[in-house]
Amino acid sequence: MDALSSSLFSAFPRLLPGMIIVSPKDNPHQLPVFLVNSAVKTEDTPQRIITDGLTVRNISGAEKRNHSKSIRVQPPPLSQRRPTSPSPSAAAALCNTLDDLITSFIDPPHLRPSVDPRHVLSRNWSPVDELPPTGCPIIRGAIPSCLGGGAYIRNGPNPQHLPRGPHHLFDGDGMLHSLLLPRGGGTAPATLCSRYVRTYKYLLERNAGCPVLPNVFSGFHGAAGIARGAVAAARILTGQMNPAGGVGLANTSLAFIGKRLYALGESDLPYAVRLSSNSGDITTLGRCDFEGRLSIGMTAHPKKDPETGELFAFRYGPVPPFLSYFQFDSRGNKMGEDVPIFSVTQPSFLHDFAITERFAVFPDIQIVMKPVDMIVRGGSPVGSDRGKVPRIGVLPRYAQSEAEMRWFQVPGFNMIHALNAWEEEGGGTIVLVAPNVLSVEHALERMELVHSSVEMVRIDLRSGTVSRTPLSAGNLDFGVIHPAYVGRRNRFAYMGVGDPMPKISGFRKLDFSLAGRESDCVVAARNLGPGCFGGEPFFVPAGSRSRSDQHEEDEGYVVSYVHDELDGQSKFVVMDARSPELDVVAEVLLPRRVPYGFHGLFLREDEVRAQSPHWV
């Protein structure tokens, strides 16, 4: 969720294209060495950046032909979450001292609650250590057979080190919490595993024993932000780190693309990970640029067409073009050239979008990037612009340029997450369903004050008119639908209740067919009870993920992690998606608490088994 950081650091490789960082394999704790490569570019120019420990190197075309199983990133021993660090070099020690001085003397003495670690990392937001695969008893009901052998995996922030100075919720290192369910369902134990995504940032700071890279949402504010940027530049120039290895956190979501599982974060390229179908363990395979065709980063919310298998995505950032659109085929190969969208004239926070069968639908909202405000006025690099009129952009799905991009003003509509979109009236009307963030000025600073109202927006492509229908006044977000209905007209959605955001105090089921006929389209509800909070719900269909099978759209189960802040226990909960109270049909007691997080997914047993076993 921090695309700004990728652009801030991505300039360094272009300025110093020959710079690489090498950490000797026989001593992974030895500080990286700064090298300058003056080799002439040839036809075997490397295409894929592979991270192996702290080595950042490229695999040439010839070398790739001789590598298959060997090109992987193996995780370090389990006990090395906070290893004893070697004595830093003089340059590293100086930079560490400067970072401490910035925290002590330049940061404001009283931090805002949104970036105060004592507040941000309290209760169940506090970080946990990694957990190897551990058995978990079924304490209520039984796992439905359609979930058997599958796995629920959720991503979220979990800082490796206690932060220096300010820390925003979005700034934590990505950790995956996976629950592998028993084959065939029933009451056999499940397996929980929690692993960090081995990003370049994670490995760099693990070896350093302290935070090294500044946090974009909390570290770049005013004079302190400028000072931290200068220290980061000094670390690069003295060979302590190489931004070509990536600066992202991979802490936002997951996607299953072409038989490979990826951990996603907007500030970097996707990281390929693998879940073992036998042990339930999670391994980071590496950072993927899709044969050199993907640069800088990608949205954490790509959209997969359920019938063609194609994947559609975008990236955004603080430098033009502020938005670029691209796609992947059903095998996970990036297709064609990026489509730059220059009609987005101000860098905005474009976290999510939607697709229909023929169009891609983009929001342009009032949350914007303000790097100049940070430098000149000492403000945040991301904030709200109440004078901006929100827009919705519609682009043909297979467009080769933005020539056919159309924008429609929708005053007061600020969409951060999308539920779905589809076409009606022969493609002449686009229907978009999404939560509208009403208190946009609090979206990043005071999330507990955020309120989202779900709306249905109809865009008449012929007349250019836009109409809006409220579906629920409840504070609902983090929604999900049946995956077979992405881009197609659907009826049901399942959402989390913010009480307050970003905590989820319950779940709601919405029926879109009631739009305009009922004041509230909520048709089923479950409250978690005093002191209990969950995460994003995920819908798992009872049958196949095809609309052509004999199952109804809402025939399936809603799953989520739930934590009880009163007794400290965490559970995995399975709910009947068709029941009026979303009845619990199974509960798995987890061996330790699972922190709150962001987005997840459920892999069916056949998908778990179909994962590519190696980095190739």
Automatic annotation (TrEMBL):
Tell me its cofactors.
Fe(2+)
Cofactor, how bound (note): Binds 1 Fe(2+) ion per subunit.
Do the record's keywords include Iron-sulfur? no
Which is one Gene Ontology cellular component term of this protein?
Answer: chloroplast stroma
Q: Name one Pfam family in it.
A: RPE65
Extract the ranges annotated as region (Disordered).
60-90
In which domain of life is the source organism classified?
Eukaryota
A GO biological-process term: carotene catabolic process
* GO molecular function annotations of the record: 9-cis-epoxycarotenoid dioxygenase activity; metal ion binding
Provide the binding site for Fe cation. 301, 351, 417, 599
Q: Does the keyword Oxidoreductase apply?
A: yes
Q: What is its EC number?
A: 1.13.11.51
Q: Where is the composition biased (Low complexity)?
A: 79-90
Q: Which InterPro entries match?
A: Carotenoid_Oase
Q: Main EC class of this protein?
A: oxidoreductase
Keywords of the record? Dioxygenase, Iron, Metal-binding, Oxidoreductase
Of which family is this protein a member? Belongs to the carotenoid oxygenase family.
Name of this protein? Putative carotenoid cleavage dioxygenase 4, chloroplastic
> Whose protein is this, by species?
Apostasia shenzhenica
